Amino acid sequence: QAKKLVDLLLPYLQKLPRFVTEQTKAHILRIITKFLHIIPGFEPSNELFTKYYDLISKELSTLRSRECRDLLIEVLEEFSKLDNTLQETVEFIKDINSFSTIRLNEPDFERRLDAFN
Asked: pTM value?
């Protein structure tokens, strides 16, 4: 059942913002995060793992809001829990999308620059 739901929701992430708003996409990402780990046989050697990873990682180039990007990182972290080879990549993505803990809604430029070193 979880696989069917994720399969139904994933295509909506690829729709243009005028058809599916980023707020709706944020809700979809929350659902996907919760359901990935309960899909039977969902592991790095499975073709489904690669398919979902490819579809979700492509959204990094289209989703702009902080909320959606944070949720994308959460989904990618779920993938990295199953495939340790992704941990460094996900950590890099997390760093280049980081925001300051001191100033409201301001990017953490130091952490972003450090990610490239």
From this structure: 0.91
CA 5 – CA 12 distance, rounded (Å): 12
Run means of pLDDT, 10 residues per run, the chain, 117 residues: 97 96 98 96 96 97 96 98 97 95 92 93
Tokens 């579809």 correspond to what residue?
Answer: 55
Helix, strand, or coil (residue 66): helix
> Within 13 Å and on the Cβ side, how many CA atoms surround 18?
0
**C-alpha to C-alpha distance for 117 and 112, rounded to whole angstroms:** 10
Contacts of residue 3, defined as CB under 8 A and 6 or more positions apart, other chains included, come to 39, 40, 42, 48
Query: Which is nearest to 55 in space by CA: 12, 97, 88?
Result: 12
Angle at 38 between CA 34 and CA 44, to 5 degrees: 100
**Domain residue ranges of the chain, discontinuous segments joined by +:** 2-115
Query: 48, 32 in Cβ contact below 8 A?
Result: no
